[in-house]
Amino acid sequence: VWKMLTVAVCVALLGYLQAQELQGHVSIILMGATGDLAKKYLWQALFQLYLDEAGKGHSFSFHGAALTAPKQGQELMTKALESLSCPQDMTHSQCVELKGQFLRLSQYRQLKTAEDYRTLSKDIEAQVQREGLREAGRIFYFSVPPFAYADIARNINSSCRPGPGTWLRVVLEKPFGHDHLSAQQLATELGSFFQEEEMYRVDHYLGKQAVAQILPFRDQNRQVLDRLWNRHHVERVEVIMKETVDAEGRTSFYEEYGVIRDTLQNHLTEILTLVAMELPREVNSSEAVLQHKLQAFRALRGLQRGSAVVGQYQTYSGQVRRELQKPDDFHSLTPTFAAVLVHVDNLRWEGVPFILMSGKALDERVGYVRVLFKNRAFCVQGERHGTSEQNPCLPRQVIFYIGHGELGHPAILVSRNLFRPALPTQSWTEVQDRPGLHLFGRPLSEYYAYRPVREQDAYSILLSHIFHRRKESFITTENLLASWVFWTPLLDSLDREVPRIYPGGAENGHLLDFEFSGGQLSFSQQQPEQLVPGPGSAPQPSDFQVLRTTYRESPLVSAWPEELISKLAEDIEATAVQAVRRFGEFHLALSGGSSPRALFQQLATGHYGFPWAHTHLWLVDERCVPLSDPESNFQGLQAHLLQHIRVPYYNIHPMPVHLHQRLCAEEDQGAQTYAREISALVANSSFDLVLLGMGTDGHTASLFPQSPAGLDGEQLVVLTESPLRPHQRMSLSLPLINRAKKVVVLVMGRMKREITMLVSRVGHEPKKWPISGVLPKSGQLVWYMDFEAFLG
Ligand code: BG6
Question: Where in this chain does the record put each Glucose-6-phosphate dehydrogenase NAD-binding domain (predicted)?
Fold first, then answer.
């Protein structure tokens, strides 16, 4: 027995030594070791990593680093380490022992110069040699402001990479840029020092247990959810992050970023994609998850100014003035509250609103994702009779409860009248009922409710993933840039927007409540008297009551953009209804470009009486690119109008710019083909309505100054040359346009101000300004201009 025991012990010891040898030594360098994040979360997470991994064959050393001089830095770091806590199930003596070990392995060092980095690298190598270890790899955690990234990255790359056969991982904390361009620049810069697989960009919300469980939950309940997780069953999705704290003490950061960059662009967007993306077969494959996420990003409908409401808590500007030494009359426009309506334009989610909301100084701290299902049941018997649990008429929802709030811990809740979810029992356990506790309007007992067996902090989870090279919970460069592509236009359009001021806390009452319709989101309550004046010089519509109502001797409609678009949409609908009543059909020729986009959206979402079934849609002009190209006018029409309405396919008439595998070749006679199609279907080749725009050079349709094609003559459709790329175009000719029963010219934006002034004064000079040649022979011409175009 003794012999056998001795052999067994020797084998085990050998195995352990081999494992140690195989797995090697890991150095973790925490930069910003004395900063807030390190003190609050990172040291604790590193300690947890040590507790979880030290016994499994790796050896560790932890280097706290900062710019602070060694003595002072060591003191600050020691303070941070003193407050480390042990897991609840650990005895006091175990805790003291392990903490002691961890402290002995943790040292402070100043990392300032290239030389400091070289010394660090040498010290690691010397230690490894001295202790007869093999180096496995190094983890550098950047818990520093982004302006410091480039220098640190350069130093690591040039002087602190571990030798061959080892790995390097760098961990980066947001902000990763300020908009698409800056994010791209930062990504390119970092990409010149590190490989993509070496970088771990942290979004700590991906380490929150309820968030990390979204994909596994969808996977484990695939069978039931396959049927339910789509537009036929889901009423809406809410991704919510409410905070009670405000930005005091952080305004130098916050003033530059604001709530959308701080939490929506990253945390909430990541959650949105986890809910919305197609579920990969392998939910653990980081590559598959990334590809599906990117697909979800591509399906997001572009945000407009009207997709969001923004607010700012009342004391924010004062805090900024104090902390950033701003003058007394300084008023910040940075939003501290935002709600955004997002649409995912694909077959699964078309029409389902996704609401993203986040704010500081709100009434409670809580975060959750709530998928609310449609309810088509009608219950005859009142609730008083029978059990309510399975009542099909009660709300049906799946909630990933991130934490805090009434419940006070992470959870996954599924209405009992929906289905009983499957969850991994070793890590999730059923929540005990708490009578009297209501969540989302229903008693807790109405949910199947689960909580993590062991609550873990997000940073501990993420550090463990970094250690195990599990990349699916990190933000890749592609993922990051896709998110900025989505958010940047909204951020730009909100740049000068005055946020609604709210008092903060419970006093907010219903002030920030919002509602959505027709793709737009707005506050439910009228704007109360503003506590801060808007930009002083902004003109009000009432200032313009005496405007003239004609332009170039034709009727002029002018208004603020939203109102203008509504009026135009109404007028087009009225014209369509009338045409269909009289002739049985309505022929509408539409322009491309950006101005009509809002009109298309308005028509798509707000005009249910529109006789689409009897409408023929034609193009005024087209770029010589394939119809699937994002530059194609038809693509714009498709994205913003066609896919939301029901027009018979045979009533849609794209311009044939792409024939015989080539674009706009004269020999292919595309222009003539289109002209024949018009003559065949449109009585007298006279469109019921032609929608035109006006370029800053006075062009209209694709008829350009100093280019005679299409200005006169017999041809109905012509090929033309634009001064801008893509140069080749196809266009209706002026004579054809002028045969229309009604021509509408839509002009919007400050950029059009000059040409609007100029064209108001010139006569009939289509060669110089093709727009001046628009004069329907027997039809009507109406100008629609927004105040910015008209008044500058
Ligand atoms: C951070 C934001 O990313 O998340 C903070 O910069 C915010 O503004 C914080 O307060 C919220 O995180 P948590 O984990 O406390 O919900």
Answer: 29-211
Which candidate, 225, 207, 206, 350, places its Cα nearest to that of 273? 206
Pocket of ligand 1 (CB under 6 A): 243, 262-263, 367
| Local structure of residue 307 (DSSP, 8 states) | G
pTM of the model: 0.74
Contact 212, 206 (CB under 8 A): yes
**How far, in Å, CA of 724 to CA of 744, rounded?**
24
- The identity of residue 469, as a single letter, is R
Residues 6+ apart with CB under 8 A from 520: 304, 306, 307, 341
Can you read off the two tokens belonging to residue 376?
A: 């088509």
Structure tokens at 114: 């290239």
Tell me the two tokens of residue 361: 């100084």
Site to probe by mutation for ligand 1, drawn from 254, 262, 336, 456 as the one with most ligand atoms within 8 Å of Cβ, is 262
**For residue 218, how far is its CA from the centre of ligand 1 (angstroms)?**
26
The per-residue pLDDT for 3 is 63
3-state secondary structure 3-23: HHHHHHHHHHHHHHHHHHHHH
Centre of ligand 1 to C-alpha 176, Å, is 15
Per-residue pLDDT of 471-522, as tens digits, reads 999 999 999 999 999 999 999 999 999 999 999 999 999 999 999 987 889 9
- 8 A C-beta contact, residue 654 and residue 634: yes
Ligand 1 atom at minimal distance to the Cα of residue 403: 16
HSE value, Cβ hemisphere, 13 Å, CA-based, for 394: 20
Nearest-5° Cα angle at 750, 744 to 754: 80
| Amino acid type, 138 | R
Which atom of ligand 1 has the smallest separation from the CA of 266? 3
Which residues are annotated as catalytic?
267
Classify 587 as helix, strand or coil: strand
Average pLDDT on 289-313 reads 95
What's the 314 CA to ligand 1 centre distance in angstroms?
Answer: 20
